[in-house]
């Protein structure tokens, strides 16, 4: 078994923390885990890309183009920017909550419409797209990644046990953050129809 996950977003959204939660959950189940990260020019609002691979014989953190099983995109334009990792065997879960950059705010660049993003990614693979941020905000805005993880789990897209995901949260986050992240995971599973 080998599982390749791309987590993409912008600085400040918690993508790196999410990759650690999932990596710790995979280690609980005895898998070898490799995580690689590419950080944008700034920590806040710069592009952030995490490669997470786990399985029996995983030696490199990098995922080749077209080889992602799953993409969790915390920001929609970042899903488009990293679509090269997707193929017909992939699934993309996209947060329909744009974070504009300085260049799009002043009109130097056009931010693509959400339906354009969904259509473009949908030509490559199966897409689930909704405003996950709105749901996370009801718990705590910083639970976005875990809520989307719960959604992916609820859709049967993450080959790990729920108990392992809960352990991953415990291993990664401070204890005072556990309860709200457990709630976010459950809410994501509910949203997926689970």
Largest sheet: 6 strands, mixed
Considering DSSP H and I runs of 4 or more, what fraction of the residues is helical?
A: 25-40%
Task: Indicate the CATH architecture.
Answer: 3-Layer(aba) Sandwich
How many angstroms does the end-to-end distance come to? 24 Å
CATH fold group: Pyruvate-ferredoxin Oxidoreductase, domain 3
Q: Strand percentage, roughly?
A: 15-25%
Q: Mind telling me the CATH superfamily name?
A: Pyruvate-ferredoxin oxidoreductase, PFOR, domain III
| CATH class bucket | Alpha Beta
Query: How many DSSP-defined strands?
Result: 6
Helical stretch count? 8
* Class inferred from helices and paired strands: alpha/beta
Low-pLDDT parts are: none
Order of helices and strands: EHEEEHEHHEHHHH
Shape: globular
Quaternary state of this entry equals single chain
Q: Going across the biggest sheet, name each strand in turn.
A: 2-3-1-4-5-6
The whole-angstrom Rg is 16 Å
How many domains make up the coordinates? 1
Overall mean pLDDT score? 93
Q: Could you describe the 3D structure shown?
A:
The chain has a 6-stranded mixed beta sheet, with helices on both faces. The chain has helices at 15-28, 76-81, 102-105, 114-122, 132-137, 144-154, 162-172, 178-191, and strands spanning 2-10, 32-39, 47-55, 70-73, 91-95, 126-130. The protein is of the alpha/beta class and 194 residues long. It contains 8 helices and 6 strands. It is globular and about 50 Å long. Helix 1 packs across helix 7 and helix 6 packs across helix 8. It has a single domain, classed as Pyruvate-ferredoxin oxidoreductase, PFOR, domain III (Pyruvate-ferredoxin Oxidoreductase, domain 3, 3-Layer(aba) Sandwich).
